[in-house]
Task: inverse folding
């Protein structure tokens, strides 16, 4: 039976306080105001003093309004009807489509029991060479994309959504500008991926608490699709906005702040979301790619710093490209040997030569004389950046590997690459420009 209380003790911004017993943390409540009904969520319990975060904010709420506790946490409808739909952080449709109320599923539950998981062992192709060839994304992996404001991380996510070999895409947008929301919608529609995508969108003008709901909604839906034997890719942007929303609520509740004002449980809150990545033993999978912007390009900022301890590597997006140094997929060795036998050796060899190219650029900038070897490295680095690092490049893994051999052959002799002879004999292109 729903518990109803007719007196609100205090209102502080979007947080209200009531005296109540028998309620649970994260339980939903409905506030009946003279302007209509507002949804709220329990976010602090101190004895019989219960604090609730009002989704639409405290404006319009008065101390005499009725608070009705609903007896359950936030829930989202689940069915195949979700595909192609767009919802806000309250689970309400924002695409002019009908509301969905069947098969309601709780969000924010525990991560999957380890006994139900299998080790990540399958590649998820994206047709982006800097991912597929050099830092392979693996099914059920959890990876952040570290970036700064102004970088094309949302464009990168849109490309991955359109090209990734996933059965279902779940996009969670937090603090998005309205233009970014329209960009995702238009790009996925034009690319033909909207029909297999579910979008949960919180824009910068929406209530703060809805931002905190987005990852849980996206991951709850992804988990349900995975249990239907589907490979699901969850794309989240931007987890720093998620953490900032947590900080805003914590400050309103007068919690003791931790590093740079963030709540002390920041690590646990981030881990609870990332650990939803899973490959089920007898069903589908959930893979998580999440943008994390670094204020001031500072990787020691609490959000990227904590994220690095949770995830299985990271992609660094800098200067409009995924950087080969700093980017890391810790699980790539689980699949590289299953792709093509030259994959690992070619990847290592090309990165080693690119590192030598970067040193040569420094020497050139300092005015040192360039040797014949330096000239080869300069040519190689330019080809590598233009033909493989450019994010506009769209190649299958096999095409990228073949292109890698062609780039090497244009710049070097076989024995200059440091790659095993049996591989160069088999894969080296017939025409060679490295003389």
Result:
């Amino acid at each position: 039976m729903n518990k109803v209380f007719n007196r609100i003790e205090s209102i502080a911004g979007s947080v209200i306080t009531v005296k109540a017993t028998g309620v649970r943390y994260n339980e939903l409540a409905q506030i009946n105001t003279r302007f209509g009904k507002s949804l709220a969520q329990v976010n602090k319990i101190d004895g019989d003093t219960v604090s609730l975060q009002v989704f639409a904010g405290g404006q319009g709420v008065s101390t005499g309004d009725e608070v009705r506790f609903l007896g359950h946490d936030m829930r989202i409808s689940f069915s195949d009807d979700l595909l192609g739909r767009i919802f806000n952080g309250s689970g309400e449709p924002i695409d002019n489509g009908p509301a969905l109320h069947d098969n309601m599923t709780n969000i924010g539950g525990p991560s999957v029991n380890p006994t139900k998981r299998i080790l990540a062992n399958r590649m998820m192709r994206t047709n982006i060479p800097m991912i597929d060839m050099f830092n392979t994304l693996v099914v059920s992996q959890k990876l952040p994309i570290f970036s700064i404001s102004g970088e094309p991380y949302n464009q990168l996510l849109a490309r991955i959504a359109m090209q990734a070999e996933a059965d279902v895409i779940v996009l969670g947008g937090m603090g998005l500008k309205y233009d970014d929301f329209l960009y995702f919608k238009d790009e996925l529609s034009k690319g033909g991926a909207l029909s297999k995508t579910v979008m949960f969108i919180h824009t910068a003008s929406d209530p703060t608490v809805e931002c905190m709901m987005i990852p849980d909604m996206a991951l709850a839906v992804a988990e349900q699709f995975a249990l239907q034997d589907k490979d699901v890719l969850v794309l989240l942007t931007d987890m720093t906005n998620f953490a900032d929303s947590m900080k805003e609520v914590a400050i309103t509740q007068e919690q003791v702040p931790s590093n740079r004002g963030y709540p002390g449980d920041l690590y646990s809150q981030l881990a609870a979301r990332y650990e939803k990545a899973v490959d089920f033993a007898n069903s589908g999978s959930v893979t998580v790619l999440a943008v994390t912007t670094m204020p001031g390009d500072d990787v020691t900022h609490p959000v990227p710093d904590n994220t690095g301890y949770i995830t299985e590597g990271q992609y660094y997006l800098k200067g409009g490209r995924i950087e080969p140094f700093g980017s890391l997929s810790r699980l790539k060795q689980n699949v590289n040997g299953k792709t093509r036998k030259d994959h690992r050796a070619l990847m290592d060899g090309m990165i080693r030569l690119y590192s030598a190219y970067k040193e040569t650029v420094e020497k050139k900038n300092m005015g040192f004389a360039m040797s014949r070897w330096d000239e080869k490295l300069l040519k190689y680095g330019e080809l590598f950046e233009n033909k493989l690092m450019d994010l506009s490049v769209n190649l299958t893994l096999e095409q990228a590997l073949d292109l890698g051999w062609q780039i090497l052959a244009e710049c070097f002799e076989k024995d200059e690459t440091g790659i095993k002879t049996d591989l160069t004999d088999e894969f080296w292109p017939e025409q060679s420009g490295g003389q």
Q: What stands out?
A: The chain has three domains: 3-69, 75-333, 340-427. The two ends are 83 Å apart (CA to CA). The mean pLDDT is 91.
